[in-house]
Amino acid sequence: MLIEDEYVNQEILKMFLEDSYDLVVAGTGTEALNIIRSQYEMLSLILLDLNLPDLSGLDILRQVKADSRTARLPVIVATSDGDAEVECLTLGAIDFISKPYPRQEVVLARVLRTIELSEDRDTLSLTERDHLTGLYNKEFFNRYAAQLDIHHRDCPMDAIVLNVNQFHMINDRYGKVYGDEVLRLIAEKILELVEQSGGIAGRSEADNFWIYCPQCADYGATLEAVQGDLNGDGQSENRIRLRMGVYSNVDKELDIERRFDRAKLAADTVKGSVTRVIGRYDDSMHEAELLAEQLIEDFPAAIRERQFQVYYQPKFDVRSNEPILNSAEALVRWRHPTLGMLNPGVFISLFENNGLISTLDQYVWSEAAAQIRQWKDRFGVTLPVSVNVSRVDMLDPGLIEKLQEIVTRNGLTTRELLLEVTESAYTEDAEQIIETVTQLRKLGFRIEMDDFGSGYSSLNMLSSLPVDALKLDMQFVRNAFRERKDTRLLEVMILLAKSFELPTIAEGVETAEQMFTLKMMGCAIIQGYYFSRPLPAEEFEVFIAERKEIEAPAEAASSLTRKDNYTYNALHDSLTGLYNNSAFEILFHDADQEHIAVLIADIDDYPDLRKSRGRVYADSLVCRVAEVLRSNFRSVDHICRLKESTFVVIMTRITSAQKELVFSKIEHVTHILREGTDELLPITLSVGIAFSDREHPDGDIFQDADKALWRMREIRHSGYAVY
């Protein structure tokens, strides 16, 4: 582009250049800027006169270089003012042509050389920059970071990783165009930051940004500077939250990628956290890193020397009156020669990240299949065993053949080796995994969706997934029974599974209360320490022996830490089906003693009624009270029959602040009972109540509720009293 207002000079330069280049000519500064802004992608060079009628050439140069779209355009200044050269160079001019103009050959040579240099620079820039954000790509970032180390040997440096929380959800919900715009905005903020701090920035992949800069004093301020106004006024539903990982004062002996691996490790420690957004690499992470390196190095020998041992945890079907051994889960342990027995939490996630998990999984599958065969031969029973199939396994094109070979080698059917696939696997590479699972089910393998409830599946997705059972996430089950017990969502999930005709399996069940509550909700299979911890195969055989009514060796039984196997009959009242004294003791002991109410209810005049009308009539009264109590209290409340005419209700998740709820339930129950039936006279109750947060307790909550009941008996009047 030629910017020149004098006609003669325009004609001279046109004569010099028009045979070699397509020319765009402007005679004023305003005209020139309009053309540049509209045609900047087509321009290769600007030849600029400093003296124009409306704007100075210096003003045009400033505006061209200040605009990110046009800043790349090379500018040659044509001037007779030698003093202007320094200022023009400072503003970004590349070269000069003096006035009067030199020979044509000189002008052509300078124009050609400037264009070539600019194109080389643009080519290099495109090569070293991420095309979306304009930050350095990973390769060139590493090169420039190494140069920073050379030029700042004594300067402490930080490696910082920035990620967007749930970025894949932003893309899924709002589209890739919006996601790309978010990344560009973040990159702009980061670029502003590193220009001030003297560092460099790059985008390694997706939403991963790297910053290498002199050591920072306030990482919170650094994160806030990048977060900035990404969410506008903060009212938008698509709130964008960043997390940061910092490896401070890096060890410069490590290669660049290793430094940022440590920063990424720190960032992952706050992944999913609502309150923490900055993670720092520290000594504990360093020790974990060293342990990880050792375990990876020791893995081949561990497979070769069979250091991995498979333990088995029983799963009981609780749908009948008495729990029945249904199957087992294979769980791996590592008997390390120097580190001792290692639980899977130490190494499973490590092997999932580096791909070794497939080798370990196949080892476990083979061991479990061989054990099924051994038990089948020894006891004459088929006990299915479930094994974990990782997402990496599901993407293996040879998976089906490997599983078939293991089953065939051990003379098993495909229904004897159960396959647990995590819920999250169905949402990543979903089409391929669903296709693989569908093929496995056609061959007879049964599929259990593991970790159901960890938050990945939608209702629409669940209705179409090829699975045979849902295994509730262990942490989800445990959270439902914590101090502020709330099992409502758990009950909804079990009902949801029932609506799809899928049985539910609950793992991590540790107490009688948990087992009973899940059973009442309709959970089919229970697994956890309530029945047994994971056991070596030889100890597990006690359960198979019991199932076959074979007397187990006493020494094997003594090695178990299994809880007493309370049967249905031992824990339930035979007349009403309510919990009995034994169950009450367990449920009362396991209840949250700070958030309960205990109600003791007694049928008025029961001895006289039994004497005058007989045992059958008295039993009918008891069953009627049991039926009304059961239908009017919540599923999380425990209703027990302690003596002939005495009932106890343990109301959970409640305090005296909710006493009106308790009173209304008692009044509704007594109202129904007073109405009588065709076969029974009206029934009245006396009820004693005590709350966990009662004033001046005189004993435990049960004793104080009993004192309140005795007050009602003393006045010989039906109703209720509160301690």
From TrEMBL:
SUPFAM superfamilies (alphabetical): CheY-like (SSF52172), EAL domain-like (SSF141868), Nucleotide cyclase (SSF55073)
Single Gene Ontology BP annotation: phosphorelay signal transduction system
Stored PROSITE patterns: EAL, GGDEF, RESPONSE_REGULATORY
Gene3D superfamilies listed in its UniProt record: 3.30.70.270, 3.40.50.2300, EAL domain
Pfam families: EAL, GGDEF, Response_reg
Residues with 4-aspartylphosphate modification: D49
Keyword check for Ion transport: no
Domain Response regulatory: 1-114
Keywords: Phosphoprotein
Annotated SMART domains: EAL (SM00052), GGDEF (SM00267), REC (SM00448)
InterPro entries attached to this UniProt entry: CheY-like_superfamily, Cyclic-di-GMP_PDE-like, EAL_dom, EAL_sf, GGDEF_dom, Nucleotide_cyclase, Rev_trsase/Diguanyl_cyclase, Sig_transdc_resp-reg_receiver
GO molecular function, a single term: cyclic-guanylate-specific phosphodiesterase activity
Protein name from the UniProt record: Putative sensory box/GGDEF domain/EAL domain protein
Organism: uncultured bacterium Contig1756
